[in-house]
């Protein structure tokens, strides 16, 4: 059985040594001093390790059951859900007026990493609810907010997002679900939606489905899509629960992983729905929450990697096999622990340097979201829009690869379900797909975000890296050599790729799009390079100031040097792939595949 | 449900246009003309598509059952196994005197790709039998050969390999299973073995377990390990079946994939065993078959990638979503097939250029094995020893990555078991682990094979690449630019890495071992680069000679150019990682992870 320990120390380092959150002028950040965040993180870590994690394997093995139209989640989920509600965790960053605690999104991001790492399938029930509540918060009428938000913020009612249909996922303009206006202002919703996470269960009194549908007679394609609130149980004027709505679960999907989450085919048979936001502006309403939702999914990639890494370390210290090439390190024992072997180290360092870098990147992203929302900062908003596909695509791709590496450390035991390492890879796999498959993230990045606002956000990003490098050019020589120089080089590669797109992608868009995936990954590497440069600087500062824990900061420096030397140079490969253009990518006619 | 079509056309291209097998002087190759190999491949393709493939999902869903000590494979496996026996497939490359067809290993490799691609879990039952039979063929007494081989070559009896124990896998010197000599020359075998593929089932009258164990009183460690034949049912003097031996199945493992194969915990409770080969030379006996066994596993990586790729192509042509950025290509339809999108293309080209390159590499490896065995060619033997860890490690790592890419093409459907793409990744995952985890392959390559025989094999490899480049320097200009130049550059990177190991690894072995995994991958890329250069040349020749199928050869050239431009440049990244040395890899003390 795997174990999970919340990485609170590392989170504190990122929050305070690196991001220096309590010194920030973002509204609400001044309260986030070390003691305050420590208290929250410890508490969240405790519930993660003690309540959620023990149910992770249970959820995987049991899965959900559909019986007589009711979905039953795995044993123990209902009790754990009650505990989450009691602790007020679902409403951490929700407005106080609806029962939330109004903490920054940054804090719910940190807490969310722990919840996802300890039990992704479980955490999705409240994650989806959070997403649906955010949509109502952003686009709902006052009456809608009053009706739904207090219950959803507390997770007495949960929520879902209904986008995909059997024949359309990415291309939602082809959607067939229709909404017929009724005399009372409501709509009758009819159609089938698939892949609905947390689509049904018995852990809440009601489930508020947000459903994309086309109002009959509206414009064709994506411009005719509207968003509707479709409660599982209709809500009476006085807020009490009324009749069952005409929505039902058609089927539970058998999936590769996240078995503990009910992925449902949902059938809407003239179900009563209420327009959320404006007619035909459904996609816009969805997009409002996209940055947060996608950062959240990126975080799942990191979270699974972190959990898998922790267990790989435990196994590598415990499993005795062979001797260190430099001489026995456990001469009393029958063999040395496998952590002495360089290739096991290489794998653990890949994982460690990724998870710590990714955590800093995700937390930084969360501060940008807070800055955009709480300070109304347009530049932060532009920057996080640019970085969102990178956070989602890069962190989930790399996070998945790291779970595969962690599994590999276990040798044959990694393939046996009993040891739990397979689940990390199987659960992590979905994050590369949902909330926009990673190829779509790459397309969003190159096809839309680069040129957004005349390219201002991407220029701001480069400026930020350049300024950081310039400001730290006079630092300690080894730091400049090991951190600043590699970052400069990687950033130059990224700029060269951007330049290639400008010069070759305007006339021939395929030249840009054929390199989009590589660009997303090289962008991710530069972001992690920047984070490592910042973390290295923070570690140096802590060591210079004198610290009671020098080993922690020395390990940071070493791990950063590893990333800079061994991971970041991938940018050159991505650049060379991009610069080879679209000819070999697009050259074959379809019948020659 | 996925489908599978044997890639006979591509196999014929590799066998005849590239390897020109019937012109080879390897004994038995003269018979391998186009018609002969076409007939075998067509027949094997038919049984793969019609018999094995339809059982692939069945095996995954049902798995095996252990009831009252008997293992039952999935529905349909027993009938299919009968058909395989009737067709004589298990004995394809076995000697005629034991009922085989004495065909080259090359042919069983090609056929093996099809069998693995259509049903890996099923094919392992005969694959393990083949391995065990090969060991008896190489090391058995005449009496042992007469007793076991005719039955094993026909698969009336199957075989297994028992190496791993709960506390030791890679480090077999720690083995505890013991063998007590008996007065009649036999041994009593006692101990527990785990991860025994095809360990038990009801598809054969007997199962011949080959078991590594330590003879009581023998040397400590790996030098005291011997190999034993331990039949499930003892065989009487006259060849008839006698008493049940004291061997039993303790448990069936629940695995991530290959559910159709029974992975058993085997308990030996004083079971009767017979020494195979010499006392205390058990590891040597195992190593004899290692090149073949590891090439076979490398082939599984390719096979799963090929099967997954075929289905990704079908889906990409069928699924309508979005429009080509260059203008609608399916204007009559509601959207274009996703194969028009550059990033889907990029993924399909990654897969196609890998599987075709890997097939050529594996087939070439098989010819080296034939050359070593049939012609007694020492140089070929040295070369295939060197290339074996590359074939195993690179093809299974990359093969797995390609199944993940193929799954990604399906978007959300890729995560749903019903669509079958998850199974390809789950089944492919094991090949990176068994038959020596890939980290161990890398260690074998850098720690042992590079220096083998004074470095002659690796020099021979470089010479071979150099000669090819020199001989083709005067070819068509585009060919030299797109194929020869990139190959030269990649080979230079590989040599530079070897040089780094020589200069830095002698004194500080960690400097070499910390780069071993990268070296294995860069070696693999150079091998595929060489194969693509050879295939490109063969395609040019076919086009120059005039062919009825120019599109096939043009596609080859384009796919090769893709590999050269987009995949091969990875060597530079691997080199830079290697040249960063061991400092950042080994710098942390274990407690800082």
UniProtKB/TrEMBL annotation, chains A, B:
Residues 281-444 form the Acyl-CoA dehydrogenase/oxidase C-terminal domain. Keywords: FAD, Flavoprotein, Oxidoreductase. It catalyses: 3-(methylsulfanyl)propanoyl-CoA + oxidized [electron-transfer flavoprotein] + H(+) = 3-(methylsulfanyl)acryloyl-CoA + reduced [electron-transfer flavoprotein]. It comes from Pseudodonghicola xiamenensis. It is an enzyme of class 1 (oxidoreductase). Residues 78-156 form the Acyl-CoA dehydrogenase/oxidase N-terminal domain. Gene3D superfamilies: Acyl-CoA dehydrogenase/oxidase, N-terminal domain, Butyryl-CoA Dehydrogenase, subunit A, domain 2, Butyryl-CoA Dehydrogenase, subunit A, domain 3. This is 3-methylmercaptopropionyl-CoA dehydrogenase. Its cofactor is FAD. Pfam families: Acyl-CoA_dh_1, Acyl-CoA_dh_C, Acyl-CoA_dh_M, Acyl-CoA_dh_N.
């Amino acid at each position: 059985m795997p174990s999970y320990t919340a990485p609170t120390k590392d989170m504190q380092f990122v929050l305070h040594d690196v991001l220096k959150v309590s010194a920030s002028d973002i509204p609400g950040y001044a309260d986030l001093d070390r003691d305050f965040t420590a208290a929250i993180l410890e508490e969240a870590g405790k519930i993660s390790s003690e309540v959620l994690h023990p149910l992770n394997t249970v959820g995987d093995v049991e899965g959900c059951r559909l019986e007589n139209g009711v979905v039953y989640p795995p044993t123990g989920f209902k009790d754990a859900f009650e505990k989450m509600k009691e602790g007020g965790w679902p409403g951490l960053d929700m407005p106080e007026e609806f029962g939330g605690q109004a903490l920054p999104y940054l804090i719910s991001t940190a807490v969310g990493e722990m919840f996802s790492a300890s039990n992704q399938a479980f955490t999705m029930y409240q994650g989806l609810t959070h997403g649906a509540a955010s949509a109502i918060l952003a686009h709902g009428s006052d009456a809608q907010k009053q009706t739904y938000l207090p219950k959803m913020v507390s997770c007495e009612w949960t929520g879902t997002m209904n986008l995909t249909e059997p024949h359309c996922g990415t291309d939602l303009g082809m959607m067939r679900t229709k909404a017929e206006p009724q005399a009372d202002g409501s709509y009758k919703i009819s159609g089938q939606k698939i892949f609905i996470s947390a689509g049904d269960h018995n852990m809440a009194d009601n489930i508020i489905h947000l459903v994309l549908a086309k109002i009959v007679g509206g414009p064709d394609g994506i411009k005719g899509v509207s968003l509707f609130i479709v409660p599982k149980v209709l809500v009476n004027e006085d807020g009490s629960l009324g009749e069952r709505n005409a929505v039902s679960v058609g089927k539970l999907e058998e999936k590769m992983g996240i078995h503990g989450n009910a992925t449902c085919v949902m059938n809407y048979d003239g179900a009563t729905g209420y327009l959320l936001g404006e007619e035909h502006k459904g996609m816009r309403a969805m997009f409002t929450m996209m940055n947060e939702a996608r950062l959240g999914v990126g975080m799942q990639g990191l979270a699974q990697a972190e959990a898998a890494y922790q267990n790989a370390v435990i196994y590598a210290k415990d499993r005795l096999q062979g001797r260190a090439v430099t001489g026995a390190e456990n001469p009393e024992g029958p063999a040395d622990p496998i952590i002495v072997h360089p290739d096991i180290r290489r794998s653990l360092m890949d994982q460690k340097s990724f998870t710590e870098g990714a955590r800093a990147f995700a937390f930084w992203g969360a501060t940008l979201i807070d800055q955009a929302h709480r300070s109304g900062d347009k530049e932060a908003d532009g920057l996080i829009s640019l970085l969102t596909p990178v956070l989602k695509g890069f962190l989930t791709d790399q996070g998945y690869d790291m779970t595969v590496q962690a599994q590999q450390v276990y040798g044959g035991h990694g393939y046996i379900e009993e040891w739990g390492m397979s689940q990390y890879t199987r659960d992590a796999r979905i994050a590369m797909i949902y909330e926009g498959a990673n190829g779509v993230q790459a397309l969003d990045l190159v096809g839309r975000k680069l040129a957004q606002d005349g390219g201002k956000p991407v220029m701001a990003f480069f400026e930020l890296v350049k300024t950081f490098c310039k400001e730290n050019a006079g630092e300690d020589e080894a730091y400049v050599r090991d951190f600043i120089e590699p970052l400069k080089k990687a950033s130059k590669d990224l700029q060269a790729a951007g330049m290639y797109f400008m010069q070759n992608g305007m006339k021939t868009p395929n030249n840009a799009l054929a390199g989009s995936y590589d660009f997303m990954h090289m962008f991710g590497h530069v972001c992690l390079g920047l984070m490592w440069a910042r973390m290295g600087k923070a570690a140096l500062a802590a060591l210079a100031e004198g610290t009671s824990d020098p080993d922690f900061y020395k390990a940071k420096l070493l791990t950063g040097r590893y990333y800079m030397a061994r991971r970041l140079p991938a940018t050159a490969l991505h650049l060379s792939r991009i610069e080879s253009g679209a000819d070999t990518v697009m050259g074959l006619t379809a019948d020659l595949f």
